[in-house]
């Protein structure tokens, strides 16, 4: 195998080794420190699912790297193109197959999401392929990265200007609560957020909320379990936290950071492949970048997750300014006591994988200056 494909494959394998080690460390940590067997089992299950996902993504990426090298795709041999196309379809087919085996309503949602993902990649692939055709080879990686950043920026601007639209799920039926949330939105600067209730399992059975931001607004999804479990005042506190994410532009900034890291990865991989394989085909290089980028990103997870943990503190401070620190702290403490997976994380596992700060750290900040 050429030098750079070998290095890329070694990097992917190293990521799996690191994740497997983190999994073992986390399981031992739970076995020694989690008194609640339910929380311990849920924590081990979540860690296992994360590791399984990483192993699966890495396996597909390694298959792509070895196949592209072994069949001569990296050397531009046209005879291998049909075989490469078969592999691409196999990778895509795995995604579609997982969507087909999903139950009922989830199947339609996953298929639609998969189609949107493919449709969104087609213009990007066509644009970057065009750059490869008309530009000098030495500039291709940098032009690809610049083209990616421009297209990502245009897409984010489009999302920012587009209306929030209707989110899946049901609507809140408590008219008094709806009125309180409207007052809260007015106090927060009227973020363009559509609020809905996820009433279909398995999400409906959880007790939580999330925001899917578009610019200054977006969608806030509350689970049916949260609506059934919390009081109206507590729901207002939860929504205030999600408004904080939307109004402070956390997801937009996260998208920008992620886009920049993708651009750096494109330059590194494209430059390496084209330097060690003089006849490397532009479509094959783009395909390898796409297939390998998720498992190869294990080293930057601490950066991305560190940013997200900081966003949680900022959203807490935003919400506390509108509903009060004591109300928000009491609500969060209630939520933390409900969710069974809160058995704690080993420091190293948290450093790589945790998207939220420690529960006690968030509560300590809020209870420090209650009002």
Count of DSSP-assigned helices: 14
Shape label: globular
- Which sequence of SSEs, written as H and E, runs from N to C? HHHHHHEEEHHHHHHHH
What's the gyration radius in Å? 23 Å
Helical content (DSSP H or I, runs of 4+): over 70%
Largest sheet: 3 strands, mixed
Strands across the major sheet, in which order? Answer: 1-3-2
Low-confidence stretches: none
Mean pLDDT score: 79
- Count of strand segments: 3
Q: Tell me the strand percentage band.
A: 5-15%
| Distance between the first and last residues' Cα | 64 Å
Structural class: mainly alpha
Please explain how this structure is put together:
This protein has 371 residues and is mainly alpha-helical. It has a domain of 195 residues. It has 14 helices and three strands. Strands 1-3-2 form a three-stranded mixed beta sheet. Helix 1 packs across helix 9 and helix 11 packs across helix 12. The protein is globular, with a radius of gyration of 23 Å. The mean pLDDT is 79.
Overview features:
three-stranded mixed β-sheet; 3 strands; 14 helices; mainly alpha; single chain; globular; 371 residues
List the helices and strands and how they pair.
Blueprint: H1 3-33, H2 37-70, H3 81-100, H4 104-134, H5 140-161, H6 175-187, E1 193-198, E2 209-214, E3 217-223, H7 224-229, H8 232-247, H9 250-276, H10 282-296, H11 301-323, H12 325-338, H13 347-353, H14 359-368
Parallel strand pairs: 1-3
Antiparallel strand pairs: 2-3
Overview in brief:
This protein is mainly α and 371 residues long. The protein is built from 14 helices and 3 strands.
